[in-house]
Amino acid sequence: MKASWRLFAGLAVFYAMMAGIYYGVGGEALGITAISLSAGLAGLIGFYVWFSDKRIGLLPQDNLDAEIADGAGELGFYSPHSWWPLAVASSMIAAGLGLIVGWWLTIIAIAALVVTILGFTLEYEKPDPVSAH
């Protein structure tokens, strides 16, 4: 993680310098804003990774003497057969097309997007059978 936050901090400094140079050579306002926002975004990500690094401590990828097996373990649960990502993507496509076709389609697609995101998020949530009675 040390390399990650240093990379993003370096990117933030680079983008800030480029925004200053672009302003100095008479760049347009939109370009200056975009480069400045890129610097802010890189700085925000760099700060988050730095803050997480301070809380987590030394990770195997930061230890020069670590073995590959030191990084082994459970990374999380990933659904092997969920259809919800397809539904989320379809509703997002419909929302994008709704901006071209008409606002009525966008409104319907955003409602479908909310339902599909909730379905995707709560797919494996099971109610407690004891508290259901």
Describe this structure in words.
The protein is mostly helical and 133 residues long. It has two domains: 2-62; 84-121. Helix content is 66%, strand content 0%. The protein is built from four helices and no strands. The chain has helices spanning 2-24, 29-56, 84-101, 103-121. It starts with a helix and ends in a 12-residue tail after the last helix. The mean pLDDT is 90.
Please describe the structure with a list of short key phrases separated by commas or semicolons.
mainly alpha; 133 residues
How many distinct folded domains? Answer: 2
Note poorly predicted spans: none
Query: How widely separated are the two ends?
Result: 47 Å
Number of helical stretches of at least 4 residues: 4
Proportion of β residues? under 5%
Instruction: Briefly note the structural class of the backbone.
Output: mainly alpha
Question: Considering DSSP H and I runs of 4 or more, what fraction of the residues is helical?
Answer: 55-70%
Based on CA atoms alone, the radius of gyration comes out at: 23 Å
Summarize the structure.
This protein has 4 helices and no strands.
Give the helix/strand layout.
Blueprint (H helix, E strand, L loop, with lengths): L1 H23 L4 H28 L27 H18 L1 H19 L12
